[in-house]
Specification:
This protein has helices at about 15-30, 45-50, 75-95, 110, 130-135, 140-155, 165-175, 220-230, 245-255, 270-280, 295-300, 325-335, 345-355, 360-385; strands spanning about 5, 35-40, 60-65, 100-105, 120-125, 160-165, 185, 205-210, 235-240, 260-265, 280-285, 305-310, 320-325. By secondary structure, the protein is α/β, with parallel strands linked by helices. Helix 1 (about 15-30) crosses helix 14 (about 360-385). The chain is globular and about 65 Å long.
């Protein structure tokens, strides 16, 4: 038995990344490993409500307090925040004992400080954001990010096993991290929870279009407002996590909503599942989504699923259900809502798509994670046994 320190700073955000973390911990516990979780805030009851399961038994939680204590205002906020995190971690690190680290969120200064004590280090990469942002920024932003990028590069070399959430993310990770010794990242698609899977026929569902994503400007919920105006005979619903930091934006966003458009923040998992299974169409509006667990939950739930023609969702959703411009999206929705006969195209593809996404069942994800972690552990043991 080995001791794993699973590092997930913002475990209380409760999105796709938090579900990944949950199932990684389950995979480790089921295979007899000792697991400790390091994060800021943690509320056991809230965790159970959102995830739909309790924290795996025998997982010890180490909390560093409310994340507000490390937040910093401009200028140089990313560096100030890193400095504050390092101060907290130095105290934790003095007494912490672990054999492996497993970073399950965005690789940052939070976990980099802890890597040198471990035999091996593992990371689940949702996206190499700092390097991507640096490469796609103007000169002034590049100057701002340069030092932080260099600090990360020093520690990227210490990661022994990398998982990615899609082939899309894998390609970009290899592009930016390959020169630091990262080899052959393993694609482990995020899991879709068992209760989402449904065979409920479309004709037994409401005439409703759903979109699920955090309530932040980048997720482009405002496009749902426009769609609702254009298609008044259908109901439109936006659901997702709303944090206090976005309360002011959300208040403005929620003004003057079309009568056939509703916003549903902070739903419990059972409420979200019902929303998926009661909707005929799911429309994902985020452009360049690294993977996007919500479109996969929509597929599993039996919704007709439309996604932007970018990011990782296209690895499961065929071209006829992808869009590139808002006008193209409107055309695809119009074909679906104007006549239910157009659902026949989806019904013909449905079984093929469900077979394709069977890889996303939690037991498959956990087995895939464990097989690769176990192989790394065996290599570590063999390496130590050599004379």
């Amino acid at each position: 038995m080995a001791k794993f320190l699973v590092i997930h700073p913002n475990i209380d955000i409760y999105g796709g990344g938090e579900r990944v973390c949950h199932h990684i911990m389950k995979a480790l516990v089921v295979h007899g490993q000792q697991v400790e979780l390091l994060a800021f805030d943690f509320d056991q009851n809230r965790y159970s409500e959102i995830i739909g399961e309790k924290l795996p038994e025998n997982v010890t939680v180490h909390t560093l307090g409310n994340r507000a204590v490390v937040e910093a205002k401009p200028p140089l906020s990313v560096y100030k925040r890193s400095r504050n995190i390092l101060r907290l971690l130095k105290k934790f690190k003095k007494t912490a004992e672990y054999d492996y680290t497993f970073s399950t969120q965005t690789f940052s200064a939070f976990e980099a400080t802890l890597l040198e004590k471990a035999k091996k280090n593992i990371a689940y990469v949702h996206f190499p954001e700092i390097h991507y942002d640096y490469d796609h920024s103007r000169k002034t932003k590049k100057m701002y990010l340069w030092l932080y990028k260099k600090l990360l590069e020093k520690d990227i070399r210490k990661i022994d096993l990398v998982f990615c959430n899609s082939n899309y993310t894998k390609a970009i990770t290899e592009k930016y991290w390959g020169r630091f010794g990262i080899k052959n990242p393993v694609v482990a698609y995020p899991p879709v929870e068992k209760p989402f899977w449904s065979n409920k026929p479309l004709n037994e569902r409401a005439k409703q279009v759903l979109y699920v994503g955090r309530f932040v400007p980048q997720k482009r919920h405002q496009l749902m407002k426009k769609l609702a105006v254009d298609f008044p005979r259908f109901e439109f619903v936006s659901a997702g996590l709303l944090r206090d930091s976005e309360a002011s934006w959300f208040e403005d966003f929620s003004k003057d909503l079309p009568p056939n458009y509703a916003v549903r923040p902070n739903l419990l998992e059972e409420e979200l599942i019902k929303l998926f299974q009661d909707s005929q169409i799911y429309c994902h509006l985020m452009e360049g989504e690294h993977f996007g667990i919500a479109p996969m939950e929509a597929l599993a739930s039996g919704c007709i699923t439309l996604v932007h023609n970018s990011g990782g969702s296209g690895e499961f959703i065929p071209s006829e259900f992808r869009w590139s411009t808002f006008e193209e999206l409107k055309q695809k929705i119009a074909l679906l809502v104007e006549s239910t006969d157009n659902y026949t195209v989806w019904n013909a593809k449905k079984e093929e798509l469900r077979d394709r996404i069977s890889i996303l069942k939690p037991q498959n994800f956990e087995a895939h994670i464990w097989s690769n972690v176990d192989a790394l552990m065996q290599q570590t043991v063999k390496g130590k046994s050599k004379p």
